[in-house]
Amino acid sequence: MSRVWTGGHSSPVLCAAVSCESTVATGAEAGELTLWTPAGSPLSSLHLSADVTGLSFSPAQPSLLCACHGRDVTLLDLRSLKTPLAELRDVAEDEINGVCVDESGRTLAAGDDTGAVTLVDLQLMKVTGTLRTHTNICSSVAFRPRRPQSLLSAGLDMQPRPVWSVSLQDTQQEHTGQVFNPPLAHCVCVSSCGDVCVCAAEDGGLHLLRVCADGRLRERGMIPAHSQGASQAHFISFLSHPYWLASGGNDGLVALWDLSRHTLVDHSRSQKKKKKKRRGQNPQDEACGSETRPSLCFQHAEKVNWVCPAVLEGKPSLLVTDQTNCPTLYSLEQL
C-alpha cells in the first residue's frame, strides 16, 4: 500500500529525514525545505539559498535539523523554522552532497564535490577539521553507531573510507540483467550495531562490508540488487532485527532486504560456505540463493532519489522521493 504526499513542494524532492519524534523533513531543488506531520500534511516550509541536497536530525536533540545547500549548512530549530539557529557559510570548498550528525549531537560531517569531508562542532558552531581522503566526489557520509570517533565516507572514486579503504571494483560481480557500470558509491549506511556497512553503487549492487569492533575491515560481499544504478541504501532500526535494509535505484525498484540471512552476517551460513569451499563445491550456490532475494519489493514509477525508513502514526513505513515534487509513503506492515 502506498500514499502520495502532496502540497509540500513545487520542485523535485532530493532528500528526506525523520526525527525520533516522527517529524519528517524533505529537501528539494530551488532551496525548498518542508516539514510534514506523520500523517503527510505539510507543517511549515522554508526557502534556502540552493538545492537542499542533504538533511540530518540530531539524535541528541530531536528539534535540531541540519540542512546542506550549496557549500553552506543551516541549523534549524523545528519550533521556530523561519529563524535559523545558525547559518554556516562556505563550510565546504564545493557543493555538499550529504551530511550526518553523530549520536552525541556534537559533530556534523559533510561530504562535498572535491572529495573532502568537513567536520563541524555543533556546539562551537565552527569547522574543526577537514578529511581529504577521496580523489573524486564524496557522495555520502555516515557515523558508526556507538563509536562516535568512527566515520565512514564513500565517493565516486569507488572507495569507502573509515580507518581503512577498499575498492568496490574488487567486489563487482556479473549477474543477469545487470548494467556494467563502474561501482561508484552513491550512498553509505551502517547498521545500528555498527558492524555492517553497505554501499549502494552505480553497478546496481549493494556492497557489504563487515567491520571489526576496532574498525578493521573483516570481510566483504555484494548483492546484485538493481538492474540500474543503486542510489540509496538505509538500514531499518525498528523491525525485528538490526539487519533489515531498504534500497532504491535508478530502475525505479524499492526493495527490502533481510541481511541477517546473508553469509556475511550469519556466521553459521558463513561456516557452511567455507566447508563447501574446502570440499570443492561452489560456495556461491548458497550466496545466490534465498539470502540475496528481496523480502519485499515496490515498483516505483520514477528513479529513486532517497529512501527514508520511519515509524509514522505507529506504523512501520518507508518514505521515497524521486524526480517529482511529491514524496511517496509505502507501508512496511507486511514485514
Task: Explain what the structure shows.
The chain has 335 residues and is mainly beta. The chain has two helices and 26 strands. The chain has a four-stranded antiparallel beta sheet, with no helix packed on it. It is globular and about 50 Å long. The chain starts with a strand and ends with a strand. Mean pLDDT is 88; it is low at 173-180 and 281-290.
- Largest beta sheet, briefly? 4 strands, antiparallel
Q: Separation of termini?
A: 13 Å
Instruction: Give the count of helical stretches.
Output: 2
- The computed structural class is mainly beta
Q: How many whole angstroms does the radius of gyration measure?
A: 19 Å
Strand content: over 45%
Total strands: 26
Q: Can you give the helix content as a percent range?
A: under 10%
Low-pLDDT stretches? 173-180, 281-290
Q: In one word, what is the shape?
A: globular
